[in-house]
Design brief:
Layout lengths: L2 H4 L5 E3 L3 E3 L1 H4 L8 E3 L5 E2 L15 E5 L6 H17 L4 E6 L5 H8 L7 E4 L2 E2 L9 E5 L14 H8 L30 E5 L14 H12 L2 E4 L8 E3 L7 H9 L3 E4 L2 H9 L4 E5 L14 E5 L14 H14 L2
Parallel strand pairs: 4-9, 5-6, 5-9, 6-7, 10-11, 10-13, 11-12, 13-14, 14-15
Antiparallel strand pairs: 1-2, 1-3, 2-8
Organism: Chania multitudinisentens RB-25
Protein name: ADP-heptose--LPS heptosyltransferase
């Protein structure tokens, strides 16, 4: 698959008929003819700016929403929650990219009070209804959109769905939709949750600092420290076995007394339940991810060399970040 299609700002069309995602197509070695999805009835804000009065819309179809990671999806669904509050009668359909991990897709199943219909790619373009009071928006592959690393994430989704972020109150940008989700009960007592592992190594807290952090959290909070990785410390418990499903993970974050993380999914969940949080950023500045989270204390330890990098296995960059962690924890 060529680089232009892989990094295309939007979705793709397979054999002129089926909508697919660059994310999914990039994982399949033998695919048919692929072209950028470009139809007059489909809006794509990266190509043609849109502004939508959702009070006049009956049906909203979002192609390739709202991301392939759990954290992005939580924030993206919050934008749909905002639209639903603008027009409670609107019918929202989300067409998901193919081959996403089940733990990511599960968050969409949990948002059934917001998303009315879930579909999955490959999706026949002829099956998208188009009427005068409906709108179709392609927001796919946002990782490669120029403003994804230049706008606060809630504002990014709102803006690219045709909503002026300045017209939405800041308090609406904290993922409070999660409070309406039915979750399993968690009975773990009082605990601090430690999440040092992000989806990529360059965003994770190196393991050699874990014991030190657990020790400091133990002294500061006088509570048990829990997490999802093995750490040798008398006051730490690995509860990974209790978080095999997305709803269990959310419930564990929800019931914590304090959260220390570099994992964006835990960050965004914690904000939804107003959990006091410390979040460490290495490649994305807090301004773009935690700006509206009033209970979050954020630290950026990256440099201009790591700024804006979403995924990298570059040994020199990872070594650089480790040196910054060394300075931070001295």
């Amino acid at each position: 698959m060529n680089k232009l299609l892989l990094e295309h700002n939007g979705s793709l069309l397979l054999e002129g008929k089926f909508i697919v995602s660059p994310y999914g197509a990039g994982k399949i070695s033998t695919y048919g003819k692929l072209t950028p999805l470009e139809k007059d009835i489909i809006h794509n804000n990266s190509k043609r700016k849109i502004k939508v009065n959702y009070k006049d819309i009956k049906n909203l179809t979002i192609i390739n929403g709202m991301g392939v990671t759990l954290g992005d999806s939580i924030v993206g669904i919050n934008a749909l929650y905002t639209i639903k509050k603008l027009n409670n009668d609107i019918n929202i359909r989300v067409i998901r990219p193919e081959l996403c991990p089940s733990y990511v897709n599960d968050i969409y199943l949990l948002s059934k009070n917001i998303i009315d219909t879930l579909s999955y790619m490959p999706f026949d373009i002829e099956e998208i209804p188009h009427t005068q009071d409906s709108i179709i928006i392609d927001i796919g592959n946002q990782l490669y959109w120029k403003d994804f690393s230049k706008k606060e994430m809630h504002d990014f989704f709102l803006y690219n769905l045709g909503v002026n972020p300045k017209e939405i109150e800041d308090c609406e940008k904290s993922n409070y939709w999660l409070k309406d989700v039915e979750l399993p009960e968690v009975s773990l007592g009082d605990y601090v949750l430690f999440c040092p592992d992000a989806s990529t190594k360059i965003r994770s807290i190196p393991s050699r600092f874990h014991q030190k952090i657990v020790e400091e959290l133990s002294k500061k909070h006088q509570k048990k420290i829990m997490g999802f990785t093995d750490i040798e410390h008398d006051n730490y418990i690995n509860i990974k076995a209790l978080s095999k499903k997305t709803e269990n993970f959310i419930s564990i974050v929800k019931n914590s007394k304090y959260l220390y993380t570099c994992d964006s999914s835990a960050l965004h969940i914690g904000a939804g339940f107003e959990i006091p949080t410390t979040c460490i950023f290495t490649t994305v500045r807090p301004t773009y991810r935690s700006f509206y989270y009033k209970n979050c204390e954020s630290y950026y330890i990256g440099t201009f060399e790591t700024d804006g990098i979403h995924n990298s296995e570059n040994a020199n960059l990872i070594k650089l970040i480790e040196s910054k962690f060394e300075e931070f924890y001295v």
